[in-house]
Amino acid sequence: MEDKIVVKGLNLCFDTHHVLKSIDLNIRANEILSIIGPANSGKTSFLRTLNRLNDIISTVKITGEILLDGIDIYKKDILLPWLRRKVGMVFALPVPLPRSIFENIVYGPRLNGVTSKAKLEELVEKTLKAAFLWDEVKDRLHLSGTKLSGGQQQRLCIARALALEPEVILLDEPCSGLDPLSTSRIEEALYELKKQYTIVLVTNNTKQAARVGDNVAFFLMGEMIEYGSTEQIFTVPHDKRTEDYITGRFG
Amino acid sequence: MLKPIFYEQVMKRILFIGTAITVFILFFIILYILKNGLPVVDLEFLLSSPKDFGRAGGIFPCIVGTIVLTLVAIIIATPLGVGTAIYLREYTREGRLTSIIRFGTECLAGIPSIIFGLFGFVLFVVYLGFGWSILSGGLTMTFMILPTIIRTSEEAIKSVPASYREVSLSLGATKWQTIIKVVLPSALPGIVTGIILGVARSIEETAVVIFTAGSVLRIPTSLFDSCRTMSVHFYILAREGISMENAYGTAAILIITILLINMFAYWLMHRLMAKYS
User: Fold this and answer.
1) Which residue, among A169, A159, A133, has the nearest Cα to A27 in the 3D structure?
2) A95–B185: do the CB atoms touch at under 8 Å?
3) B97 and chain A: CB distance < 8 Å anywhere?
4) Positive or negative, the Cα torsion across B142, B146, B152, B154?
5) On chain B, which terminus has fewer CB atoms closer than 10 Å, C or N?
6) What is the rounded distance in angstroms from the CA atom of residue B107 to the CA atom of residue A119?
């Protein structure tokens, strides 16, 4: 399978705080890569380098290369809206914007210049179905997105990211605040979505990584300790620290 | 040593008495003015021009003057103030520059209005040659209400969750699109409150108006005409002993206007909040 994203020698600092230390990582197309590791290991910071969301923090310094389909996304002439439409993101806490379900989903497409009502309605239905939320909300698309339950809000956020028609989806602990039932719904959705998209999933839940991931990267203190197929990582980890983490000895 | 329960009761009573005194003073002032003012208020009083320096006739030119002067001030101050607040909150990092700007606005808010009046007189009336006019008055009033609008808008923008901005950016919005489509709508109730406070301040202001817009008792027909606001009319009627009855009448209209504006503001705020949450 071809590489969708290639990360070479990536370093990231906030002021003097060295958060990511020379990360090299290839992310293959149409797979789910799960990134695991204890708190403060740089998982989220890494995820946010992929859509350049760290750029909004003015003290950030990034060196190294990230290639998306061979294009260096840190090149000067890269337009951030273009990049962020290609690389959608779902945050740890679901944040519906204070507007209706419908308006939440069409926010991105509208900015991209889609005005046809029929096209927008089609997008809303398609993405809500893909996020397994359509049946629950199809009769109340004009209800405020903030009135949904936590699990529904997170699926709304997934649908909203899908509406960008991205190629890569970044998920930052998308199930951290959700109950087991909502979690399994989202995992189900991810499983379907990887047929079309490349997915990078940061998770604190090693069992979730074992359930849905094709490959796993283990991060610790800003370094990538080990990368391998999910099966290999969870059965015969090469590194002692990986083994300690997945067997729950620390973290 | 007092028993805790007794202590609780005493504090509760003291706080209640404080509140009661405040409310009593407020109602006393309002009722006193309405009681003395309302008898002279009728449609005639509202819609006719004053005769004999205000001894007889109505206050129509003053109502027009108040509205026009306030409008000029608000139309200039709103974009300036909200723009400054956006710049301070969204485009600068907390540092020396922002603290100097913020300190400056705070000082501006503390300057007595008569000094604004004098400044406006020197700059607009004399130096720029606008004369005693609505333009001079409106511009000076703008300076006076700017700090209020900046501060309230800044607070409102600050209270918009950072996650909204991240979400908007992650959905392919530019910074400006994020401000227009997400930050400002969420901050709108607070911004509107600031503008309403500004409106109220320009309606009740006298010193600035006397210095910069003059006190001519005619219906203004251009921005370069002098005008007299209701507050100034009240001041002159009372100060020069022209007509206490008409002074109270003007005061009553003034209070009712402020009341209506506040009610309108609350109504607008609830509507906006319902729309954006």
Assistant:
1) A169
2) no
3) no
4) positive
5) N
6) 53
Residue numbers in B near A82 (CB within 8 A): 172
* B106 CB within 8 Å of a chain A CB: no
Q: Tell me which fold the domain B43-275 belongs to.
A: MetI-like fold (1.10.3720)
Q: What pTM, to 2 d.p., does this model score? A: 0.83
Could you give the domains of chain A?
Answer: 28-51+79-246 (3.40.50.300)
Q: Angle B134-158/B113-120 helices, nearest 10 degrees?
A: 130
Q: A146 is written with which tokens?
A: 């903030």
Tell which residue, B145, B273, B264, has the closest CA to residue B198.
B145
For residue B251, give the nearest of B266, B262, B236 by alpha carbon: B236
Report how far residue B72's alpha carbon sits from residue A226's, in angstroms, rounded to the nearest whole number: 66
Q: Tens digits of per-residue pLDDT, A193-244? A: 888 899 999 998 888 888 888 999 999 988 899 999 998 988 888 888 888 8
Closest chain A CA to residue B172: A81
* Residue that is written with structure tokens 């083994």 in the block: A243
Query: Rounded to 5 degrees, what are φ and ψ at B57?
Result: 80, -165
- The tokens for A200 are 């990078």
Distances A154 to A91, A145, A173, A183, B62 between C-alpha atoms, Å: 8, 10, 11, 10, 57
With CB atoms and an 8 Å threshold, state whether A81 touches B173: yes
- Which chain B positions have a beta carbon within 8 Å of A98's beta carbon? 164, 185-186, 276-277
Q: What span, in angstroms and rounded, lies between the C-alpha atoms of A178 and A184?
A: 10
Beta bridge partners of A89: A170
Q: Which residue of A has its CA nearest to B162?
A: A95
**Chain A residues touching chain B at CB-CB below 8 Å:** 51, 53, 56, 58, 80-82, 84-85, 88-89, 91, 93, 95, 97-99, 107-108, 111-112, 144, 146, 157, 160-161, 164
Position A71: which residue type? Answer: I
Q: How far apart are CA A215 and CA A230, in angstroms?
A: 5
Q: Which residue of A has its CA nearest to B177?
A: A111
- Nearest CA-CA partner of A13 in A76, A60, A65: A60
Q: Mind telling me how many Å the CA of B80 is from chain A's nearest CA?
A: 25
Residue A114's alpha-carbon distances to A125, A161, B96, B175, in angstroms, are: 15, 15, 43, 19
8 A C-beta contact, residue B218 and residue B50: no
Q: Which of B198, B98, B85, B196 is nearest to B148 (CA)?
A: B198
